[in-house]
Amino acid sequence: MLETAPDGSLTVVTDDTFATVVLAADRPVVVDFWADWCPPCRAISRSLAELAEEFTGRMVVATIDTDANPAATRTYGVMSLPTLLVFRHGKVVGSIVGSRPKHHLRQSLARHLEG
Question: Where does the record place the Thioredoxin domain (predicted)?
Answer without folding.
Answer: 1-114
